[in-house]
């Protein structure tokens, strides 16, 4: 009888361990963050509504072909006439060719064009065909702007970021005589100007999502803190530089290129860019925002 009770307790213990209380804890950093602005009642992380939202530059999983039956099919008699085997040339749309272990994406030529225009990422040949040099340049570009995975493939996210950066016109920002932080809300890019010269080239950002639109206009940095705590969203905001209505510049806590989410009005930045803007800015720095984020 004693043996049966011990066995029963062991079985019960195993059931508790296996079933457990395996609840998933909500991560307050899963969305963008504002610096203290009030959120609409019942609001959650919302999609931006932007069209053609690119995802991570990853190839899809191939579907195995259905097996075919060979029963009752006659075996063809080989002919004596030799045939020439031709290797098909890879096309940019397949994304299957590789050079030095580097896959080719469907936006190869366009990305080559934009990287050549931007400069600073190495030699690229604008011909729509992957090469070792192209691969190295694309990888360098992906690493710089936090695009995952860094594999040299010219996929949708790489194309989107390259296009936005290459088409940003710094001259559209009406900068002052001192340092000015400029934000193109339409292209989701940010840069810095001082004395009429660009001192920080355009880089990527992500602003307010649908329901939390970041407004266009001219403002001033009026408060800074290297690590600010957001009361309404309970998240740290590294390199915080506030400019209006609880909105400010700060390092993002999520994958910047996830367009299905956004901030609550703040200007999200990659770590290196948040640090650089912190070094350039001060209380009184002019902030100019132009355009409007698509879908907001």
From TrEMBL:
The active site is at 250 (proton donor/acceptor), 266 (nucleophile). It comes from the Bacteria. It holds the Pfam family YkuD. The keyword Transferase applies. Residues 179-290 form the L,D-TPase catalytic domain. Pathway: Cell wall biogenesis; peptidoglycan biosynthesis. InterPro entries: LD-transpeptidase, LD_TPept_cat_dom, Peptidoglycan-bd-like, PGBD-like_sf, PGBDSf, Transpep_catalytic_dom. This is L,D-TPase catalytic domain-containing protein. It comes from Micromonospora arborensis.
């Amino acid at each position: 009888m004693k043996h049966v009770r011990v066995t029963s307790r062991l079985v019960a213990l195993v059931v508790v361990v296996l079933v457990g209380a395996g609840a998933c804890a909500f991560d307050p950093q899963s969305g963008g963050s504002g610096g203290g602005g009030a959120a609409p009642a019942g609001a959650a992380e919302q999609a931006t509504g932007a069209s053609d939202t690119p995802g991570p530059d990853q190839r899809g999983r191939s579907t195995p072909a259905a097996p075919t039956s060979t029963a009752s099919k006659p075996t063809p008699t080989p002919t004596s006439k030799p045939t020439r085997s031709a290797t098909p040339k890879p096309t940019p749309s397949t994304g299957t060719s590789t050079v030095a272990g580097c896959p080719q994406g469907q936006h190869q030529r366009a990305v080559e064009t934009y990287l050549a225009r931007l400069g600073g990422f190495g030699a690229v040949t604008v011909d729509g065909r992957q090469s070792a040099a192209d691969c190295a340049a694309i990888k360098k570009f992906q690493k710089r702007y936090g695009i995952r995975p860094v594999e040299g493939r010219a996929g949708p996210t790489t194309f989107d970021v390259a296009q936005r950066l290459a088409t940003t016109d710094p001259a559209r920002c009406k900068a002052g005589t001192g340092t000015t932080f400029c934000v193109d809300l339409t292209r989701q890019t940010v840069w810095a100007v001082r004395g009429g010269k660009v001192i920080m080239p355009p880089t990527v950002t992500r602003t307010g999502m649908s329901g939390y639109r970041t407004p266009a206009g001219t403002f001033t940095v009026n408060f800074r803190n290297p690590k600010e705590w957001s009361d309404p969203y309970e998240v740290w905001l590294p390199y915080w530089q506030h400019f209006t209505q609880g909105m400010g510049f700060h390092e993002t806590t999520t994958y910047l290129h996830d367009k299905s989410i956004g901030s609550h009005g703040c200007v999200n930045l990659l770590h290196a860019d948040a640090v650089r803007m912190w070094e350039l800015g001060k209380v009184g720095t002019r902030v100019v925002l132009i355009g409007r984020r698509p879908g907001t």
